Amino acid sequence: MFNLTLRKKIFLSYLVLFFAFMLLIVPFTDNLVKRIIVNSMDDQASELIAKIYKAPNHEALVRYLKGQKPVFFFRVGIITDEKKVLYDSHTKRVLGAEFSQEFVVQHPEVMEAFETGSGYNEEYSDILEQKFAYYAKAFDFHGKTYVLRTAFPFQYVQKLLNDFQVGFLLLSSVGLLSFSILTWYAIHRLTRPIEQIITAIKPYDEGFTKTIPEIVIHTTNPNDEFGRLAHTLNSLSSRIKRQISNLVDERQEKEAILESLVEGVIAVDKDMNVTFVNHMALQLLDFDKDELLGSNFKVANQPECEELLLSCHDAEEPKITSVQLGEGAHTVYLDLIAMPIKGKHGMVLVLQDKTTQYKISQMRKDFVANASHELKTPITIIMGFAETLHDAPEMPKDKVMNITGKIVANAERMNNVIQDLLILSDIENLPSSRLTEVDLHERAQHCRETLLTVFKDATVVIEKEMDDDPVMIADQYLMELAINNLFNNAAKYTDGPAEIAVTIKRDKGHLIFSVSDKGLGIPEADLEFLFQRFYTVNKAHSRKMGGSGLGLSIVSTIVEKHFGEISVESEGSGKGTTFTLRLPIERP
After folding, report:
1. Are residues 326 and 461 in the same domain?
2. Same-domain check for residues 366 and 338
3. What's the pTM?
4. pLDDT in tens, 222-255
5. Distance CA 424, CA 411 (A)
6. Minimal CA–CA distance to 345: which of 373, 368, 316, 320?
7. Using one digit for the tens of pLDDT, what is the confidence trace for 411-435?
8. Looking at the 3D structure of the chain, how many domains does it have?
9. How far, in Å, CA of 346 to CA of 267, rounded?
10. Whole-angstrom Cα distance, residue 310 to residue 520?
11. Less Cβ around it within 10 Å: N or C end of the chain?
């Protein structure tokens, strides 16, 4: 029954109650029938007493009673106040001469009648050999109390009871059928709105919809309990939808904020399972989101991060440390901050990328060291030769000329380094007032002429792959300096006459300026360091050619100040190099 529907449960409950009612009422029906019979016997007895009551004496009383032909009673008799039989219609007939008025009776109904006025009893008669329903009624006659005792065959009482029970059963069956039909109809009408509500909610319960659909029920009165229930559920559903929408928006907003942070953020629960990770954290730790999210952080193979989180968990206070992850070009320097989540038994790990700051600091150290070295070397040479001249004033003229020539060369080298450093400083502070329209094709032609005055055997081919002029907003002097440095590098690092190819083309809002040569080329290992200050691929060759190691750094800085990008490609030693500048036509 526990698996039945509400409708069937209610219906069966009503049927059980109906049957229980019927079972309880059956005994009352028997008593009711008997009460009707007793009342009828009382009425008949009263009527019979009224007919014989006018007799003048006892003999007349008996004579009057004999003269009556009771239709209802099978047997009648009169009992005196001394409990003796004054008359009995059947006993005398059966016993004949043996009958005597001195018979004393002790029948229960007679005793009850003397005490209360009437009595009823069901008893088997040995004389008449059948069961009777006896009714006795007391009456006063000439100052004495008599009892009229009547008998009615019990078989007729039983037949009446049986007929009544059959009729009651038929009536009950009709009532049960009618009750069942009416109950089923009433329950159907009663539970139909519930079925409609369940039908409306079922797709949400089975996972076919993410929200509870609107509940529409068809009732005669939309303002009844079920109508109000449907309205309440719809209001609740709308409120839940709004709350879910607000929570989703709030969560998406928080996730968007966390995703936009330059710091990596990882949240873990008390069991070290990752519950949130943003893009920056994945990038810093080199993990895939599906691989890390939901997994245990212990399997992430990041012992430094794990140790910090465990320390934070045990101490229940923020913990900070710095770590180095990865090797070589993939090395990253991180500041790790672990903080407990209040009341949620979890932790948040913040990863601050300090790689750029570290590299800048390292570059600053390298720059100071390289600049000191580049300046100290010629100064040392100059001081050495100066001391030689000072200590040997009588030195031959040809040696003096040789020494003074080296002093001048090292002084020029030192001057070049200082000039390049000043240029870098000038580039870092580029004012907008120096910006104007610059034609790259025209500047390239001018730089070509300058180069050919020094490298007379060089060949420079400039090709413009666009119909209009390649004009952009830039500092003309700096752009010309960048092109000159690229041309000079291509000419210097070539065995034999240099062959330089220049192409200029448009790519949407940018100009692409490429310089290719067939020179010495650059080893792959040196490509990523090529634009660092004082970095040279071949130090001996660079020093021989008078290079300071700042030329490409100057080019890179100029391009960056013009919001452009520079890249280099080389297949290796002896296979040439291509430098490509991608410069915006308009400044952003």
Report:
1. no
2. no
3. 0.41
4. 666 667 777 777 787 788 778 888 888 887 777 7
5. 20
6. 316
7. 776 776 676 667 666 676 777 778 8
8. 4
9. 7
10. 54
11. C
